Amino acid sequence: MKTSISFLTLTLALTGLSFNCLAQATAPSPAATPEHSLTGNLSLNSDYRFRGISQSWKLPAFQGGLDYAHRSGFYAGTWASNVSGNSYNNGAGLELDLYAGFKFPLAQDLTLDLGALAYLYPGAKLNSAPGVATDKTYNNVDLYAGLTAGAFSAKLSIAATDYFGLNSDTAGYAYFSSLPAAGGSKGSAYLDLNYNLDLGSGLSLGTHLGHVHVRHYADLSYSDFKLSLSKEIAGLNWTGALVGTNAKRDFYQAGNAAGQNAKRLGNTGLVLSVAKTF
Predict the structure, then answer these.
(1) Mean pLDDT of 99-104
(2) Helix (H) or strand (E) holding 123
(3) Which residues constitute the signal peptide according to the record (predicted)?
C-alpha cells in the first residue's frame, strides 16, 4: 500500500502526549520519599494529540501507563495508546512507549531530568516504494533533557534515530510527492515549554508551547500550543484542552489510499479527557 506522509507526520508531531507521561515535578526530600514506588494511570480521550497532531485520526483514544521510581531519582516506565486504525497507516494500531531516566535537584525548586524515550509501533511497516514491503518502521528513539522550576518546565528532545522513519527512501514515496527526499532526519528536535497555574478550588490551568524542527525537511517543522483546564471530581481528573498548530496543511492531513475523506490533523480543536491515577 502506498505510504501516506500524513501518517509519517502523524507520528512526528510531535497533547502531546496529552497524558504527558514524562511530566516534570519538583523532587521531594529523600526523607519523605519511599525507596521504591509504582504508580499507574488510565485515561479516555476524545482525541490523541501528540505535539499538536492527531494520532487517532480525531477519534477517541484509550491510554494507560505504569511508572516505577527509586529514591535515588532513577525512574522507568511504559505507556500505550491506540493510534489510527485507518488503511493508510500500514498496520499501525498501537503506540507503545518505553522510557527511563534520572531526576536530581540542582537547587531548591530546580530539578534536572535526563533520559531516553522509545516510541514503538508494533506491526507497522513503511514502504520504500508503492506495494513493496520493507523492514523500515516508524519506531523512534529520543534523548531528552528537562528542567523544572516550580510551576515552569522546559524539555528538549533530540531524535537519536531517523525521525519516525523519515529519510530519503521513505520520503521519496510519501503520499505527497512534493516532499523532497533530502536525506536522514536523525537529529530532529522538539522544544517543550509548560507553565501550570493553580486557580484554586481544585481547578488548574495548563499552558504549553512547543516547536518541532525536522532536520533536512523544513516543510515539516512547525509550532504547537495547548491551553487546558483540569479539575478532580469524584476521584477522576477531568480536562478540557484547546490544542492547535501552524503545521502546513498539505503535509499534516490524512485520508484513505485514494486521498479521499481527508482530515486536517493539526488544526485547532477541543480535546476532552478523563483520567485516573492509582
Answers:
(1) 97
(2) none
(3) 1-23
